[in-house]
Amino acid sequence: MVSRAVASALGGHAGRTAALRQHLAALQERRDRRRAEQEARLEPPVEVDKKVNPEGDEELGMVRVETAQSSSTQIRFDRARSRSQSLDAKDGEDEPVRGKKQVIFAPEVAGEARSTSVGSERPSESGRLDLGRTLSPGFKTERESSSCARCACACFFRKSEAAKVDIISEEWTADPSMQQFGNQDLSLLDTLGTPLPVEPSRPLGKLQPKRCFVANSAVAPVVFAYQEPDSEGAEGETRFYAMKKGDDLRQDAFVLQIFRIMEAAWAKHGLREVSLMPYDALALSAKEGMAAFVPRAKNVATILQEFDGDISQFIKKHCAGSVSAAYDQLCGSTAGYCIATYLLGIGDRHLDNIMITEDGHFFHIDFGFVLGDDPKPGAPSVRVPSEVLEVLRQSGRIDRFHELLREAFVLVRRTARLWTALLSLASSAGGNGVTPLRDHADRAIHTVRQRLHLELDDASAAAEITAEVEQNAVAMLPIIYDKLHQAGLFWH
């Protein structure tokens, strides 16, 4: 290192080049000497035959090498020393030249010799190693017939290019059990389709571009239509999924999860008629997500427009089963959503986010305002369209509706600690995307406790919720808000 630094300071570019070559040659010499000493202790001696040619020059003949490693090591050691001496001599002649010149280093010998019989090399006048006379006759013939323009050293130590073996083809040929599939037209795609993350248990088939659309909503979600295959792989019904951007669907997923727990609590106590059947929603980010559409469902606004305000005509026309069973479904689901939306303070209710399926299931969607938040001043605490109650009256199920309403509310009161504990845990975790639990957790939890009417007995609380539903169903303010909402969507 010191010699290289001194030479670099005195000689400029040429000095740095000479110093670097000397340093590399010294390293190679020490490494080869150490390797030769280790192999000499492990290997037997080498027998050499000599002969003299007519000109009197002594030349090494064919060397019978018992082990190729000992001979190749000595060759590398002699080649590195001779090459270093020739390059140093050449650098001494070109020392005054300061211009750029091409620097050629000795090739690094990485592998062992390919032949078991080699000759000794002797440097030529130009400092290059002349291997032409010492190579085996077979190798010389191959080198002369080749069109390679490289030097003898590069050609000598070049690895032989053997044909690569295709392991997969050999395994396929050798294994008879795999050959039986050779002529079959196999498909790697599942015949039952591929599910989406929002509904991982439901496989989907091909996309139907002609049935995709942009929903008429404030955030204008893009709705994708997929063909759902049946158990045999044939085409089934069409499933719709909305890709929403602008809403935090973590809040929707949280509300839907509470709906599932509430429905399980009712079923455990015998109220299986009170059903919610919440849909699936998945938040992809804080402002993006996917929601699964409930099949064969329409919003109340569309139903009232198409059937002149008569929901019973919609059920009679599209219900595939019994109309009476559809009315029972409408009665129980309406009672369940009245309790669930009232308890959790679901706001911004209008006829476009209240849905009814063809078999009579009543449900709510789009939970952007919860726990008492509502963009409309004076909005009702619970929203049920009067047209739905009119169908229950005409079908003779209004009394059953009131009975289910009271029983469901009493059971929710008896499990009050469960709902407040869930909200407290969510607020402790940062709100889980629920804005009221993140910003005003105490006020949000107090809203739920207040709507449970824990200061009243069961009978008084049941009468309170029944009167609340009946009064809000015939109120004029919700109807005005519905008209304004429809006008806003029209201009939007």
Automatic annotation (TrEMBL):
Extent of Basic and acidic residues compositional bias: 29-54, 122-131
Keyword Transferase appears in the UniProt entry: yes
InterPro entries linked: Kinase-like_dom_sf (IPR011009), PI3/4_kinase (IPR015433), PI3/4_kinase_cat_dom (IPR000403), PI3/4_kinase_cat_sf (IPR036940), PI3/4_kinase_CS (IPR018936)
Pfam families: PI3_PI4_kinase
Domain PI3K/PI4K catalytic: 208-477
Keyword Ubl conjugation: no
Chain residue ranges for the region called Disordered: 29-97, 110-137
Keyword annotations: Kinase, Transferase
Protein name as it appears in the record: Phosphatidylinositol 3-kinase VPS34-like (PI3-kinase) (PI3K) (PtdIns-3-kinase)
Organism of derivation: Durusdinium trenchii
